[in-house]
Amino acid sequence: MPRLLALAPILLCAAALVLSLLCLFAGTNKTFLEDYSIVTLNTSRLGQSALNTSRSSDNPFISFIDNVTNTISSDINSDLNSFAKDLGLHDFYSAHLRDYCEGYYTPGPVPNATLSKHSIHKNVTACSNHTATFNFDPRAVLQRELNASGHSNINLTDLKWPEAIDKGLHALAAAQKATFVLYCVAIALIGLALLLAIVSVFFDGRISAFVNVLVDWLAFLAIGLASAIVTAVAVKASHVINHYGNSVGVSASKGGKFLILTWVATAVMLAASLVWCADCVVERKEPKRVRAGKGKGFGGEYENGRF
């Protein structure tokens, strides 16, 4: 007789597998779950502190601004984002598990009297090549774009980029790489748990339930640990960037959608393991077997209807 109780873990494991795969592949191109990032870096106001320095400075960024303002009639502070674009920088950089994406805020990066915050949307223009051990390094990314746009004479030091951000993110590099490995391990274990649950439909008994409990708990621990580490990375990275980058017009936000996705996958695997725990603990009563043609009467044994 099919084991109907196994249908629940099958559905739960399948859901956890899909959610975990979405976490792993989110943002691999600009149209696939790009808004499910771990951290989003906002550089639309980068250079604000350099702009406030003396115009007699030898800072090449100030010289660049002086040249641009010769052709711009509006106030320089209101058009700071135009300078960022002219420098070859993007408004935002979204860090994912295996790559990062970049783009601009449309119709503008900063809300004002005529532009509400809810009217601003992300226009993703490109994503980097995805790698297994991806580590988001904003300094390297920004400097590479400055060089590619023909402004190699300007470096992030000229833009007052805080070294404390680099140190803080460098401390999280190992955790970022470990997270990818943990997601791969979790996906493998969840896939194994799904296969065992399917097989267990046709096998009854506590041994199969115990094996499923063991594999499901391992999968739960793997995805739970991955979720915990990626949450710590998102929270710590956004805190470091906001704390030290506010003075230079740089901010960051942790990816709420990604965190919801990974923690739901964790909760689903916990539910699957609890179902198997219940199946393993509940006592199974075996039906009484009566041997055909033999039994006992009041006076003793009888066979074929005779004592």
UniProtKB/TrEMBL annotation:
Position of the signal peptide: 1-20
Membrane-crossing segments per the record: 180-203, 215-238, 258-282
GO cellular component, one term: cell cortex of cell tip
Keyword field contains Signal: yes
Pfam families membership: SUR7
Cited InterPro entries: SUR7/Rim9-like_fungi, SUR7_domain
Keywords from the UniProt entry: Membrane, Signal, Transmembrane, Transmembrane helix
GO terms classed as biological process: fungal-type cell wall organization
Alphabetical list of PANTHER family matching this protein: CELL MEMBRANE PROTEIN YLR413W-RELATED, SUR7 PROTEIN
Name of the molecule in the record: Integral membrane protein-like protein
